[in-house]
Amino acid sequence: MMPQRLALFDLDHTLLPLDSDYQWADFLARTGRAGDPAEARRRNDDLMDRYNQGQLTAEQAAEFMLGLLAAHTPFDLATWHEEFMTQVIRPSITPQAIEIVDQHLAAGDLCAIVTATNGFVTAPIARAFGIPHLIATDAEYRNGRYTGRIQGTPSFKEGKVVRVDQWLAGMNLTLANFSESYFYSDSINDVPLLEVVTHPVAANPSPALREIAQTRGWKVLDLFEHLKDAKS
């Protein structure tokens, strides 16, 4: 039986209280695996600033982020990612985020993470949440190595809508087939996908997205308020 509802989740600062792309680059830099650590951190910070301002393109991000993959063998990358999951990601997964996901999974909803971060970084994270489908920016892979380039349409801004439509079409479905569709996101970059679902949810929203959500009457969900309280 086809699920009646669709639940889509952004990942960084939505299900996680951090940015997995940024943290992966930072992890490689501080463990001496990203060339010049100071330069890697400078570029990482610059990309994050531009992303938060809504001024970053997928190609600009790929030049640095996918270049980190191209510089190393898949074996080394996989080994380091296991460390990354243990040290950075799993300690950051909160019961509150797990509960939101589990509510949709238990209801039989079709669930997917839809993230701009590349699939190498995010596939193990999706598995940790128990989410069966991942729509991520695809890193091109040829002759046993990552090339440093994007393959296909990046899952970013309007590209997220394109990629969701393509994914659903592969199952002979469209958004219109679902009685209800949800998308949870923190970022103003995700407004295009938030606008096409029946239940847009501004989850831990940036100030810019919070303002849009309040203007349009979208639900606002703050999953990580307890983390702010713990730091204060």
UniProtKB/TrEMBL annotation:
CDD domains: HAD_PGPPase (cd02612). Pathway: Amino-acid biosynthesis; L-histidine biosynthesis; L-histidine from 5-phospho-alpha-D-ribose 1-diphosphate: step 8/9. SUPFAM superfamilies: HAD-like (SSF56784). It holds the Pfam family HAD. GO terms for molecular function: histidinol-phosphatase activity; metal ion binding. Keywords: Hydrolase, Magnesium, Metal-binding. It catalyses: L-histidinol phosphate + H2O = L-histidinol + phosphate. Its EC number is 3.1.3.15. Belongs to the HAD-like hydrolase superfamily. SerB family. Catalyzes the dephosphorylation of histidinol-phosphate to histidinol, the direct precursor of histidine. This is Histidinol-phosphatase.
